[in-house]
Design a protein that fits this description.
disordered N terminus; six-stranded parallel beta sheet; homodimer; Rossmann fold; photorespiration (chains A, B); 11 helices; one-carbon metabolism (chains A, B); alpha/beta
Chain lengths: 352, 352
């Protein structure tokens, strides 16, 4: 086990210090969970240009700035954790389980641990080798389930093929399932008149961005592209809880652009860079891009650039508002993990 | 406690006897759960006539005969139960919990008990008074949860207002939740790569009717009207598991007919008699009507007639196929309860 620790936190701490004396509001409840398991879509050569679609030339879509929204949420969370610590001497703790050596998993965990550190959430990391057994992994999860100082548990996905992901997720206590992937939490998210203990973070981030941007959801036509448990499914369910009329588009959908171009709100979890073209969008739609892809780019310093599912250059000419990639849903998703962990701790401390 | 017992079973038993010697196939796995909790729709004076909609005058929609499909399923279930009994001397048992004196609840229970009796499923009925406490109800459910001779438990809904329906459903063991309303089963239904132990019966009936009628689901546009846990929600989730492109329409949807008229498959759980007019349908759509309403009718012998959500006379002129009410989804839904109970018993007997 190791404790997550990072640099560049100094500046953030200064901001936090200011926030502690200026932000009296408690953190509202949000969510987290950014491991993308995209649907299997076939990449096509569709140019995205469809006759009859009007690209406005003057006005570009408003950019929904996830970075600053995420920062604001984190400042509030940090402030609330600080107050709880002062009042009762306790603080939230997140346990992270990491199996194997996938570079992307290590990067995600690094980002999560850094974010925890910034807001005052303690962390405990269990690293297991790539070839570990299911029993070994279950044992680690059990220990975190039983540890009363741990309020949230995340098992970084994907797992190596010898491990049954569904079985492991079933094993995480629903009371500490801050990723919101346990079927009990998913069922309570799906069902009317019920509230899950946790909602998957990317979906909570999506709704947060819409609400903060003043987008009315009730009665609107929403199309979610993708059905993964991490993004597409819970986002469809959550939009429905907010009374949107939701259509779910996936790899088996014929002519998906005929459905997406009717949507007031479009959420993409398609998993292919630039798949969603301008012609897929209705004039004035709000676009939430849940994709994050590294695309080879020899002209870039790192040899790649980061892009989303949506062809941004085309979309901004049609949409009313859009999340950029990077700097859109991603940082808010991390803030939602912090928020879920804080909420869980408050329940444990009997403060919620 | 009383044992469910009915008349008019003699004829059925004769048919069963024949089936026992003629039907070698084991029962396939289906589902159950027919308590309709409709969305709150506003009744309107929409005539349902929209310019541009073509009503064919010659050809009427094919009637999807739920009654005969239900009978076929029940014969197979009875045959399988008979074989199990002969082989190991054991049989499935369904426990039914009934609170209060609602006439419709008593009617539903009567139908379910009769169906159980016909196929050889034993029953145990616990009746509690209208003013019973939650503790008393929980105690009864616990007893059934712990009874190894009980394989399925249904708590007839709705419950009196002093009882928390969600809390009671949570209390039913997911392994005996033959209605499929437990959030754990609903979550597993919602999530890709998972299978719930039970799927709500009305939804399973819907898919059964589609498949038996030879309707291709994969890639088709499906619209489900309604989001109740009993019908609308699980039907949306199940259609999605069969790779339909699903849109869910509800009371907050503006101009729902603009969405329904694009559907290849339309499932109605709207809860208002004759709400779905011919103009809401695409030419050649398949219509599954999940509604059952008693409409006052002085000209009828009983003072009412039974109708569905769909205006049948208009719909048959547009649709390719439609379930009638009565005689459509209803009887198959009951068969799915029997099927779920049998499946549960087979798991308990280690035959599945």
């Amino acid at each position: 086990m190791r404790s997550g620790c990072t640099a560049s936190v100094v500046l953030w701490r200064r901001m936090l210090k200011r926030a502690l004396f200026s932000s009296p509001h408690p953190s509202s409840s949000y969510i987290i969970g950014p491991n993308y398991l995209p649907d299997v879509w076939v990449q096509n050569n569709n140019t995205g240009r469809r006759s009859g679609v009007h690209y406005s030339t003057g006005h570009n879509a408003a950019k929904i700035d996830g970075k600053s929204i995420a920062q604001e949420i984190r400042l509030r969370i940090a402030s609330e954790i600080s107050r709880i610590k002062s009042a009762i001497g306790k603080f939230p703790k997140l346990a992270v389980v990491l199996v194997g050596d996938r570079r992307d998993s290590h990067t995600f965990i690094h980002i999560k641990l850094k974010a925890c550190e910034e807001v005052g959430i303690a962390t405990s990391v269990a690293e297991l080798p790539e070839n570990c057994t299911e029993n070994e992994l279950v044992h680690v999860v059990s220990r975190f389930n039983e540890d009363p100082t741990v309020h949230g548990i995340i098992v970084q996905l994907p797992l190596p093929p010898q491990l049954d992901e569904e079985h492991i997720i079933n094993f995480v206590s629903p009371e500490k399932d801050v990723d919101g992937f346990h079927p009990l939490n998913m069922g309570n998210l799906a069902m009317k008149a019920r509230e899950p203990l946790f909602i998957p973070c990317a979906s909570k981030a999506c709704i947060e961005l819409l609400l903060r941007h003043g987008v009315e959801i009730i009665g609107k036509r929403a199309v979610v592209i993708g059905t993964s448990k991490i993004v597409g499914l819970p986002t469809s369910l959550l939009l429905q809880k907010y009374h949107a009329t939701v259509s779910t588009v996936h790899a088996f959908t014929k002519n998906p652009e005929q459905i997406t171009c009717e949507a007031d709100i479009i959420v993409s979890d398609v998993g292919i860079p630039n798949k969603i073209r301008g012609a897929w969008l209705k004039q004035g739609a709000v676009v939430i891009d849940m994709g994050t892809h590294q695309v080879k780019d020899p002209s870039s310093q790192h040899g790649f650039h980061v892009t989303g599912d949506v062809c941004y250059e085309e979309a901004i000419k049609v949409a009313a508002a859009i999340t950029p990639v990077p700097g859109g849903v991603g940082p808010v998703t991390i803030s939602m993990l912090l928020s879920n962990t804080l909420d869980s701790a408050k329940r444990a401390f009997r403060l919620a």
